[in-house]
Amino acid sequence: MVTPIKPERWDEVWAADLDVIRSLREHGDLAHIPRDVDVSFKGTIEALRRLEVASSNWGFRVLELIEGDEDGQPWLFLVRSQTTDEEAIQDLTMTYLQLEDSFGVECDGWGCTGQTQE
Question: Could you say which residues form the signal peptide (predicted)?
Fold first, then answer.
């Protein structure tokens, strides 16, 4: 069962995601062009490994699992191909929030290379 996302939490992360969308648009991004969008997660190595194994269920590919950065923090980097229009990013946001809750990890955001030419 999927846990509903609290409205306050949604508002906070969606505001940050809108900032990323605005920045992309200001730099000429064409939202309708599919591209790889990466999402990073931090958490325990065990939780990240569980997410790594299950990530394809949400259309992701694994970019990299880092067992410990310079601070000893494990990271998982996932990617999936999609557009950056608001509807697609809303879906991405809901997905990463649900993954946080389901796997006990924390999303550190998403990013992509802007697409400025057809």
Answer: none
